[in-house]
Amino acid sequence: MIKGTMRRDLYPELYRVENSHWWHRQKRRVIHQLIRRYNPQTGKVLDVGCGAGKILWELQQLGWQSFGVDTVLNQGRKRGLDIKKTDLQTQPLPYPANHFDLVICLDTLEHMANDRRLAAEMARVAKPGGIIIISVPAYQWLFSYWDSMLGHFRRYTKKTLLRSTVKSGLKLKFASYFFSFLLLPAVFVRLIKIIIRQKQQSDFAADPLPILTHGVVGFFGSLELLWLNRLAIPFGLSLAGVFEKK
C-alpha cells in the first residue's frame, strides 16, 4: 500500500466497530471531555480526517454545526454528515480562513508526509482564539506492522507533536497521554509477537488479552478521565494536544 494512505477496505470495518469497540469508545470519551473543558460553547466544528464520522455525528447531536474532510466519503455520509473529499497530503482544506470555532484531527496527523503543512492548514481555518484538538499514536518505539498497514509515517511524543504544530501559529494549552493503563499490556503483546513473528493483526484489534473486556477498560478509562480533569498523564499509548490559535 502507499505510505500515508489508510487501506480503503478498512473504512467499512471502522464504521462497523466505531460504535462498540472499547478503543474507539474510550478515545471519544477523552476527546469529548477535552472539548467540554476547553471549548464548551457549540459552534462550527471541522473534523480533519473524519473517517467513518462517529464523533462528528455525536457533536452534531450536541448542537455543533459539523463539517468533515477525508479521502473516502461513503461511510461518513451514511450518517448524514457534510463531508468533503480532500487529499490532505497535497490539497488545502476547502474552507476559508478564520471559519471554525473548533478543529479536531484524530489519528490523522501521523498519516501526513508533511505534518507541519496540515497543522498550518488547521490553524488557517480556525478562528482567532479557536481550539484545535489533535490526537496521535504515541512512541516511535511502538511503531509496528499495523502502523504500516494503516499508512502511518510516525508515532509521537509531546516534544515531536509540539515540533510539528507550534510554528503553525498554535499555542499549546494542554497535552496528555491517554490509554495509560494499556501501555504495559501493549509492550507485552508486542514482545510476544516479536518472539512468534506474528504481524498480521493490530495489537488490540481483537481483544488479544481476555482480561481487557469492555467493562474493565471502561472502569480504568473512567479513572483516567478523572485524572485528566486535573493533571496530564505522563505516559500512554496515545497522545492528545489542545491548542489555541494565536
From TrEMBL:
A GO molecular function annotation here is: polyprenyldihydroxybenzoate methyltransferase activity
**GO BP, one annotated term:** methylation
Q: Which UniProt keywords apply?
A: Membrane, Methyltransferase, S-adenosyl-L-methionine, Transferase, Transmembrane, Transmembrane helix
**One Pfam family hit:** Methyltransf_23
Stretches that traverse the bilayer? 125-146, 174-192
CDD domains found in the cross-reference section: AdoMet_MTases
Q: Report the domain of life of the source organism.
A: Bacteria
Answer whether the UniProt record assigns the keyword Transmembrane to this protein.
yes
Which PANTHER family does the UniProt record give? METHYLTRANSFERASE, UBIQUINONE BIOSYNTHESIS O-METHYLTRANSFERASE, MITOCHONDRIAL
Name the chain's protein: Methyltransferase type 11 domain-containing protein
